[in-house]
Write a structure and sequence with these properties.
The chain is an alpha/beta fold and 327 residues long. The protein has helices at residues 32-45, 60-69, 96-110, 129-141, 155-162, 185-192, 233-250, 255-264, 279-287, 295-304; strands spanning 3-5, 12-14, 18-19, 49-51, 77-82, 84-85, 91-92, 117-120, 148-151, 169-173, 195-199, 270-272.
Length: 327
């Protein structure tokens, strides 16, 4: 698989990674054995970057990864995240004490003494980012993390943070129907030598030959309360996206493959981490790393899915608390 660097001085990883929120049941139940089958397929496909987080099942995702890598050590570059507190109510905590406690728990569940990349999952706005970075630098100096990451941030936060210490990666949502990073964040990452890690690069499953059937989703599925998957928006979105999906198939690739290839072509510093519970879907995602879309294909994609085509916001009012807004 094509390799890309996690930051200017970071390790090389496959251009397509694996987002492991799916291991926590966010899109339906998955057993440890099923998660292990996906991880085994990742090794076969050259998918070497795993992205997880403390809140993914309260550590379930990390535990599934930990039990797998116990028998497959040193095969993956692993990132995890902390900073979101879910109980008794949702809030954000970027204090050193909480981040340290979270990191220690993640290391224990993963069965390692070091993670390659550690993200602030969401900003706590009343703590200056400079202070948060100072905490992260401590973790790096202690050998607990290899690099510092920030998630769902604005370009101005990245620029402030980078003055304290280089930021290895920024992780924000980016796909054919979520284009905000093009308004400054992709550019700031390239300028500062920071990898841009795109999550939900297949639009939470809409760029696929089997678009989600809302009535069939589990009650706790994230998409049930997401504006783009609620009516009347969802029917309108499906009608538009179906034309793209048909076009991808006509070009000899799945919609997921084409959607991921489009993301990767937005810069050499871009890495995509689509999530899945299926080895077959993982293989579709991985194919994107070896595809270069032609100018004609890119033009047709722009015609079918023009900027801003999606009906509905990417998050509801409740879901949007935490990500930094800009532009």
């Amino acid at each position: 698989m094509q390799q890309r660097k996690l930051g200017k001085d970071g390790p090389e990883v496959g251009a397509i990674g694996l987002g492991c929120m799916s291991f926590a049941g966010a899109y339906g139940k998955i057993s440890e054995a099923e998660a292990h089958r996906v991880l085994a397929a990742a090794l076969d496909l050259g998918v070497t970057h795993l992205d997880t987080a403390l809140i993914y099942g309260g550590g379930v995702s990390e535990s599934y990864i930990g039990s797998f890598i116990k028998d497959h050590p040193n095969r993956f570059t692993i990132a995890t995240k902390a900073g979101i507190v879910t109980k008794p109510e949702r809030r954000f905590d970027n204090t050193e004490a909480y981040l340290r406690e979270s990191l220690e728990g993640s290391l224990k569940r993963l069965g390692v003494d070091h993670v390659d990349l550690f993200y602030i999952h969401r900003r706590q706005q009343d703590i200056p980012i400079e202070d948060v970075m100072a905490t992260m630098v401590k973790f790096k100096e202690e050998g607990k993390i290899g690099g510092i990451g920030l998630s769902e941030i604005a370009p101005y936060t990245l620029r402030r943070a980078a003055k304290v210490h280089p930021v290895m990666a920024v992780q924000n949502e980016y796909s054919l129907w979520t284009r905000l990073p093009e308004l400054g964040l992709l550019q700031a990452c390239a300028e500062l030598g920071t990898a841009f890690v795109a999550f939900s690069s297949v639009g939470r499953g809409i760029f696929s030959n089997r678009m989600p059937v809302i009535e069939e989703l589990p009650e706790n599925d994230f998409r049930r309360n997401n504006p783009r998957f609620m009516e009347p928006n969802y029917s309108l979105n499906k009608a538009i996206v179906s034309r793209f999906n048909e076009y991808a198939n006509s070009q000899g690739m799945s919609p997921a493959t084409m959607a991921n290839a489009w993301v990767l072509q937005k810069g050499e510093h871009v890495i995509a981490i689509p999530g899945t519970r299926s080895p077959e879907h993982l293989a579709e995602n991985a194919k994107a790393a070896d595809i270069v879309l032609t100018e004609a294909q890119l033009a047709e994609i722009d015609r079918l899915l023009p900027v801003g085509f999606a009906y509905g916001d990417r998050y509801s009012d409740t879901q949007t608390i935490g990500p930094e807004r800009y532009c």
